[in-house]
Design goal:
The chain is an alpha+beta fold. Helix content is 35%, strand content 40%. The radius of gyration is 28 Å and the shape is rod-shaped. The N and C termini lie far apart (80 Å).
């Protein structure tokens, strides 16, 4: 009788460990979609320059997900590049 109880206890412990491993695997799964976190991940340059001023340039970029072209103002202040989407083409 005591032997059977010990075996049942071991089986329950193994089942709990397997359930915990399944939960851990679920937590490690990657999302089904990717989210762009930086400007360069969201847009790619088209190579065309639309305009230029004293402090900035306006260049053509395309959205990587949709392919839609946009105009982007690119300026450099104290060795840092700043980019703003200003219009959809």
């Amino acid at each position: 009788m005591a032997l059977k109880e010990a075996e049942d206890g071991q089986q329950q412990q193994q089942q709990q460990q397997q359930q915990q491993q399944r939960r851990n695997r679920k937590k490690r799964r990657k999302p089904l979609f990717l989210v762009a976190t930086t400007f360069s991940e969201k847009y790619r340059p088209t190579g065309e320059q639309l305009g230029e001023g004293a402090a900035a340039k306006v260049a053509g970029y395309a959205d990587r997900a949709t392919g839609k072209e946009v105009a982007v103002k690119v300026s450099v202040f104290s060795n840092r590049i700043h980019m703003w989407r200003i219009a959809a083409c």
